[in-house]
Design a protein that fits this description.
- By secondary structure, the chain is an alpha+beta fold.
- The chain has a single domain (2-156), classed as Nucleoside Triphosphate Pyrophosphohydrolase (Alpha-Beta Complex), CATH 3.90.79.
- It is built from 3 helices and 8 strands; from the N terminus they run E-H-E-E-E-E-H-E-E-E-H.
- The chain has helices spanning 9-29, 72-84, 145-156; strands spanning 2-3, 32-41, 47-52, 59-60, 63-65, 89-101, 104-114, 126-132.
- Strand 3 and strand 4 (59-60) form a beta hairpin.
- The protein is globular and about 40 Å long.
- It starts with a strand and ends with a helix.
């Protein structure tokens, strides 16, 4: 399990402020967002979840926005490496999900792959990252996530 180092309090505060500001802008302008969510499985079939220093504090799959001209598979590899230090192999695109995110239309590409790496956190953007068996997910997760993870794992297998 990777947990946040004690340093980085200022960065965590700035992430929280930026997250709040971004959500306020989305409520007004209702932009169209393009992102990626990563289903990263280890050798035991456990799923990697992370907790950010901002937002709800719930466990989520790693992910983020697509850069201009970047494809979903490349974005998934990049986001996982940036957030956790884990390299993603055997990468496949599973599904495109569109969801409302505080007024923004969020188009999320779900990318799946495998990693043999141990996750690490920077203590700034992420405060925790760890692998969980599907049957022993943490309590602080979005209600729909267990069913989504089960479906994505079945599609990837």
């Amino acid at each position: 399990m990777a947990a946040a180092p004690a340093s980085g309090a200022l960065h965590r505060t700035l992430y929280r402020a930026a997250h709040w500001g971004r959500r306020q802008v989305w409520k007004v302008w209702r932009p169209e967002l393009h992102g990626v969510r990563v289903l990263a499985l280890d050798g035991e079939g456990r799923v990697l979840l992370v907790r950010h220093s901002y937002g709800s504090g719930r466990w989520m799959p790693p992910g983020g926005g697509l850069n201009r001209g970047e494809d979903a598979l490349s974005a998934g590899r990049r986001e996982l490496l940036e957030e956790t230090g884990c390299a993603l192999a055997d990468v496949r695109l599973l599904v495109l999900v569109t969801e409302d995110l505080v007024g923004a239309s969020n188009h999320v590409h779900v990318v799946a792959g495998r990693t043999n790496d141990v996750p690490r956190v920077d203590g700034r953007e992420l405060v925790e990252a760890r692998f969980f068996p599907l049957g022993a997910l943490p309590h602080r997760i979005p209600a729909r996530l267990p069913a989504e993870l089960a479906q994505w794992i079945a599609e990837y297998a």
